[in-house]
Amino acid sequence: MKLKSIFLCVIFLGLISCKKEVAKNEKKEINTSYITVKSYSYEELKPLLEKKDDKIYVINFWATWCAPCVKELPAFEKLNKEYASKNVEVLLVSLDFPKQKEKKLIPFIVRKNLQSKIVLLDDMNEDVWIKAIDSSWSGAIPATIIYNKNSRNFYEKSFDYETLEAELQTFLNQ
Amino acid sequence: MKIIKSIVVLIVVEFLTAFTLKTVDTSYKIGDTIEDFSLMNTDDSMVSLSDYKVAKGFIIIFTCNTCPYSVANEDRIIGLDRKYKKRGFPVIAINPNDPIAVPNESFEKMKVRVQEKGFTFPYLLDTGQKVYPKFGATKTPEVYIVTRNDLKVQYIGAIDNSSRDPSVVTEKYLENALDALLTGDKIEKTTTRAIGCSIKVQ
């Protein structure tokens, strides 16, 4: 009986906190002016894909309109948060339509309260940079790179937190 | 505990690698002969390549209702059909997505899209998702040129070099390939890539 009360309490608290979150997000939606997303050509992005320092970089190619990308974003956000102190950095590379940056991408970032670093890849010569980023990449998103100065893996697939963390572990154990 | 974890990770990695290799190995490559298919068109008729008796070949485009990159290419696809059908290369569009996974990709919604955009070419549903894996298509939109007499794959890839913005296109890969086939020249770029939406499965 006591358990049941606790259980109900937890649910109740959960509902309240959810509600609060919605309210907070709605409020944030009004003001998007404090967020800017930098547009990169492939040549400008390239140095971020081949850093030679001691960090592990997790690069995710995504777009706001890509349902499987949006579904896996929380996993990347969680990884960014949980592993920030372990020299891991997440970079979200948006492939949204450059013309929709202000109208779609930035409001999405605010609404989802994304904390990872985000850039927009605005470069028309896809055939060139898709092959340059990875020879096995067909161009489908989501796609992810995990790399450090010694090794690099490319994944044309979706992740959940467990599979993403497992991949990261192979780099942390090196 | 750590050993068990490592073993699990290893198994997962091996499984993923095996899966990827399998997909890559069995799909059509340039020069491969494809198997004809019979798929339902939005006018409720069945369409096969063998129905076309006089065409020189086909522009087979995996596309769909909802992917913004597909939508951004729809007018270009209509333009391609208009330009190349009369020269012997009609467009055949195939929706590879699972309509149960994405309700807006349903056959009924495909019919609506055909009406809205006035498609001048068949728009087929890959019922049971049996055709697209043979082609090795991974995303929408993705294009294959196949010649009719030998059913050989001549080109795989993108329509042009700017999928997101047609106003800044500087290289029309697909048209260049078609023009080369029509004049009997060698296709300069037989495989190109563009960003697309991954094909949706359940």
Features:
heterodimer; A: 174 residues; six-stranded mixed beta sheet; 7 strands; 47% helix; B: 202 residues; alpha+beta; Glutaredoxin; two-stranded antiparallel sheet; 5 helices
Report what the structure shows.
The complex is a heterodimer of chains A (174) and B (202). Chain A is built from six helices and seven strands, in the order αβαβαβαβαβββα. Chain A is an alpha/beta fold. Chain A has one domain: Glutaredoxin, CATH 3.40.30.10. Chain A has a six-stranded mixed sheet. In chain A, a hairpin with a 4-residue loop joins strand 6 and strand 7 (152-155). In chain A, helix 1 (2-30) runs antiparallel to helix 4 (101-112). Chain B has one domain: Glutaredoxin (3-Layer(aba) Sandwich), CATH 3.40.30.10. In chain B, strands 2-1-5-4-3-7-8 form a seven-stranded mixed sheet, with helices on one face. In chain B, helix 2 links the parallel strand 3 (57-62) and strand 4 (91-95). Chain B is globular.
Structural class of chain B: alpha+beta
Please give the number of β-strands of chain B: 9
Major beta sheet summary of chain B: 7 strands, mixed
CATH domain topology of chain A: Glutaredoxin
Helix content of chain B: 25-40%
Count of discrete domains of chain B: 1
Cα end-to-end separation of chain A: 50 Å
Q: Which CATH top level class of chain A fits?
A: Alpha Beta
Top-tier CATH class of chain B: Alpha Beta
Q: Describe the strand arrangement of the main beta sheet of chain B, using strand numbers.
A: 2-1-5-4-3-7-8
How many DSSP H or I helices of chain B?
A: 5
Strand content of chain A: 15-25%
CATH superfamily assignment of chain A?
Answer: Glutaredoxin
SSE string of chain B, helices as H and strands as E = HEEEHEHEHEEEHE
Query: Judging from the principal axes of the Cα atoms, what is the shape of chain A?
Result: globular
The helical percent of chain A reads 40-55%
The separation of the N and C termini of chain B measures: 34 Å
